[in-house]
Each structure stands twice: as structure tokens, then as C-alpha cells.
Design brief:
By secondary structure, the protein is of the alpha+beta class. The strands form two sheets. It has a three-stranded antiparallel β-sheet, sandwiched between helices. A two-stranded antiparallel sheet has the order 1-2. It is built from seven helices and five strands; from the N terminus they run αααααββαβββα.
């Protein structure tokens, strides 16, 4: 997001900074503002995993960059995305192309996520990268009232891979 030490922004601005440019600095600021410290926020994040029964994942920091004991499975990312899509503000933010944060200074942001604006029916997506996970994408798309999720990890073509998965699922799944 491009935060500086003296910056002051609303939580809403920070959420846009987290999602649009995938700002790790915004993740740290959010965690510290919400929970008081990185450790306390990570404990809350792991508590959510426990409450949701997501036992193959464990967070070690607020931003998701590689760290010892920081592991997240593709399945758990899909379940977390499904939960996030129940939150109206999350849906609004992930579908936004650009945003102007106007706190102690102005920061103009543009989404680094091309998938949500290129794939037919895409309504949410979050990109990421770490050395161990490579390029990642968690995406959802809705067609004919049915939403599907795709998670791709360690790929050089995350948009194309997610599109192929969603195309296949929309073509082959039967809803009852």
C-alpha cells in the first residue's frame, strides 16, 4: 500500500490497501489496530481457523509472507474465501478496480488483480506470492446463481489456471 510510519488511515482505507495492491504493510497495520500486536492478531486468526475446523493451516504472521510454521492449504483458502464472501464489505472491496485512500495523505490504489476484471462472472479474487507457494490466486465466480471457488498455488499462469478450473467446474458440475 505504501504506508509510512506517521500515516493515519481508516480501517476501511487499510482494507482496500490490503486487497487492491495486496499490501502487506496494510495487513500489519490492521492487525496492530484491531488486536494491539502482531502476536495477538495472529492468535485471533488461528482462533478463527480452529472455530471453522480448518486444521491443516496455521498462521505465523498477519500478512501471509513465508515464515516458520506458517502454512495454509488450498482447501482452507477456499473455505476462508467462502466465509469472506458472506461479508458485504469484503465483496465490495474485492470487486473494486481503484480506490483513493484519504487519510493523513492521499494514496491512489489500483487493483493488482486482473482476474476479477477479466473472467466472466468473477466476483472476488485475492492474489499472493511467497517463495514456497509461488504465485497464488484465490478466486470466485458466479454464473446462473451458482458460485464456485478456485485456488491455484505455485503457478506461473494463475489467471489462466484458475479460469480453466472454473470453466471445467461450471461445465461439469450439476446442481440439484
Amino acid at each position: 500500500m505504501g504506508l509510512r510510519l506517521e500515516d493515519r488511515f481508516t480501517l476501511r482505507d487499510l482494507l482496500y490497501g490490503l486487497m487492491l495492491p495486496s499490501g502487506n504493510d496494510a495487513a500489519l497495520a490492521i492487525g496492530r489496530a484491531v488486536s494491539g500486536s502482531d502476536a495477538a492478531f495472529v492468535a485471533e486468526m488461528n482462533g478463527l481457523l480452529d472455530r471453522m475446523g480448518l486444521d491443516t493451516s496455521h498462521f505465523a504472521n498477519p500478512h501471509g509472507l513465508g515464515a516458520r510454521n506458517h502454512v495454509v492449504s488450498a482447501r482452507d483458502l477456499a473455505v476462508l474465501a467462502r466465509y469472506a464472501m458472506t461479508l458485504p464489505e469484503y465483496r465490495d472491496i474485492t470487486g473494486t478496480y481503484s480506490y483513493r485512500a484519504a487519510g493523513s495523505r492521499t494514496i491512489n490504489m489500483v487493483s493488482a488483480n486482473s482476474f476479477v476484471f477479466a473472467y466472466p462472472g468473477a466476483d472476488s479474487a485475492k492474489i499472493g506470492y511467497t517463495r514456497s507457494a509461488g504465485n497464488t490466486l484465490v478466486a470466485s465466480a458466479t454464473r446462473n446463481g451458482h458460485r464456485l471457488y478456485a485456488v491455484v498455488l505455485n503457478t506461473s499462469s494463475r489467471d489462466a489456471d484458475a479460469a480453466r478450473l472454473l470453466d471445467w467446474a461450471f461445465a461439469n458440475h450439476t446442481w440439484e
